[in-house]
Amino acid sequence: MSFDSLGLRADILRAVRELGYDTPTPIQAQAIPAVLSGGDLLAGAQTGTGKTAGFTLPMLERLMAMPKPEGKRRPIRVLVLTPTRELAAQVEESVQQYGKHLPLRSMVMFGGVGMQPQIDKLRRGVDILVATPGRLLDHQQQGNLDLSKVEMLVLDEADRMLDMGFIHDIRKVLALLPRQRQNLLFSATFSDDIKALADRLLNKPALIEVARRNATAETVAQKIYPVDRERKRELLSKLVRDNNWYQVLVFTRTKHGANRLAEQLGKDGISAMAIHGNKSQSARTRALGAFKAGELQVLVATDIAARGIDISELPHVVNYELPNVSEDYVHRIGRTGRAGSNGEAVSLVCVDELKLLAGIEKLIKRKLPREVVPGFEPDPNAKPEPIPNGRNNAGKRRGPPRQNASGKARPSGGQQRRRRSRSKAVTA
Questions:
Q1: Bigger pLDDT: 91 vs 393
Q2: Which of 29, 37, 116, 406 is deepest in the core (most CB within 10 A)?
Q3: Which of these, 42, 32, 43, 34, lies nearest to 9 by C-alpha position?
Q4: Which of 305, 334, 364 is the last residue of a domain?
């Protein structure tokens, strides 16, 4: 199958070819016709399957095919909601790339940056708005935008939005939209909460699921390195140096842990930077740009900050610390092995994390291979200790983190929403 057979206009196909694509991925081959039909869609797809193009391409086609609303000022016709600012920027970049030959305007809106440039773009008029929920509601409360003409709503990575505590914000946004519209919901997993949201939001949706629930991509080689907790950083430095690894995405549980590890790796002569919610937008953009360009050897990230990172052929993901929630392991390693390319995901596991590891293996229905590095054999008599900011069992899930996409307190109405939800907050 080729993109030519999917019913997209010549100007869109031209942009697709210029980006070097000729064959759609499975999610694209199924989602594009479903969206073009005009009905609602519930799609389950792992990260890295090409889902962004799966909704962006038919979204552009439908915008061009539908009659333009009357009036001098072009209204917002498509709203895409994402959980993080990195993902919002990535989606809007895709909109610009695929729509480069079309007379459509798009913009991205998230927190952590000034509002005035966003207000100026809104006043000039945009067809497609990609936004995080918190900043979108801040603009709405200040009277800066009108969502009454939205024809299509896309919730991207809806599972992560629920994990981050955005359900109340999503409900507020839904109340601002016209009742007659097309709704697309994309999620890496189909939890009970996602099914409940889909039941409320979608009208007789087409259902697409291109990967087994909570499956890990077959293109990702996974391995466990048992090691004592005190020697993890030393082992990580050895692996990076001995294997000459570049573009290594390393996950920690906390922002403080990410900062500390990046600093320690720097002292080991390995170029590294941390990316998390407490970093300014300029610092995050600078670190991500250097990492994508291959100028930075290691990027240390928390789960939330890494959600929007999309780097083609990213070779290595390292779990410096296993996640407290087993499903997050699937999201983490989904950063590599994307869209058919091969990748490697390794986890440094100490005695404290053995129950977390058992929970992950139960979730993905496979036992991961172990390899002990000579000189780093773990102490067989070591006793597990409680995991800071987490737990050392894989049982009940902690409450969702409650923060906006900028990781900072929201201004005006956003501050009130944050105060009401502060009891749910956990460190990301």
A1: 91
A2: 406
A3: 32
A4: 364
